[in-house]
Amino acid sequence: MKTITYKQGMDLDTILKRNDDEREDIRNAVLEIIKGVKKEGNAALLYYTQALDHCVLTHLQVTEAEIDEAFAAVPAELLDIIREAAENIRDFHEKQLETTWTYTPQPGVILGQHITPIERVGLYVPGGKATYPSTVLMDAIPALVAGVKSLVMVTPPGRDGKINPTILAAAKIAGVHEIYKIGGAQAVAALAYGTETIKAVNKIVGPGNIYVATAKKEVFGKVDIDMIAGPSEVLIIADENANPVYAAADLLSQAEHDELAMPILVTTSAELGNQVIDEVYRQISEDLSRKEIAKKSVDDYGFIFIVKDLDEAFELSNQIAPEHLELLIEHPMDSLEKVKNAGAIFMGAYTPEPLGDYFAGPNHTLPTSGTAKFSSPLGVYDYLKKSSILSYDQAALQSVYPKIAAFARCEGLDAHAKAVERRFED
Length: 426
Hints:
By secondary structure, the chain is α/β, with parallel strands linked by helices. The chain is 43% helix and 16% strand. The strands form three sheets. It has a six-stranded parallel beta sheet with strand order 1-11-10-9-12-13, with helices on both faces.
């Protein structure tokens, strides 16, 4: 980990730059896959699944029998935990639900917004290095709370043609409507353009590798997408009283995600910074199943920033706009107003980041790579559409139509002006 004394005006973009620039060869490969799926449909999906996932499929859609078999294979205790997490997630997201509203600013005028759910949504769930039933819950439940009628999940199969049982169990508990055994850019293309078996969706959500992220960029416009998720990051603001064991453990909880993950500690105490560094490497030396990934993340992208006071700590944090922000300080709620840019805020020593990943209820699909400066966590609002409502009666329009016509003519749009004027001729 690198220790840096923070100074105002530092070039943080250069200091924190990751070597994850988009590669043209990946984009070209993705474009070829999308073209193939658009042209060949199911045949392309079967071909790419065999070529890239080394799996020969006999059918694309997961059957009810396969779901029941997977459900039976998951330990009952884990199923209960998934159910409880699902309830917490549902309870939280129900608070976000919006409904149609109108108001009458003057007699004869009704204005408002009509709120409707997106009709069909595709949910991408990664496979490969790790299995993420939590992603199923976090992405599916807000959609169902919003009222999405057709929720379609895609996830890559193993070489045996099966989906991880916990993924299917989470999908059943969440209430996903359709599940298909495809992954990668070909799955994104199938969701966007449809095939003989898979009906096209209106929006695609969910994280994936660089091929999935690139495919989502390429199909955006044909469909909506949630976000382009970058590598995970956590920033911990800690004072001199913070527990270095907790801080180190929380940094590693993100470092184990990806070699490009970025664990950052911002502290007012150089002594604590040194203690956290020692503790990070001590904990890595323990039997972590992903210790090599965590160590590379810490070595390459781990930072300790030393600041003069907490005001400077929050200034630095707001510039970085982290995905996860932990406040290991006394009375963190008193400092909440100082946070301007963060995906999720974890307050106090007993609110570790994994609590948000799995169980508390707020969504763990969060803006990364500084995009918390302008975007928000995934929520019910991402699955809703808003249509404006306008209603004027004759008297209300008559009182304003000359102003509308004048405005239209100042833009050179005579037909606009006449559209209101003709209603009051003769």
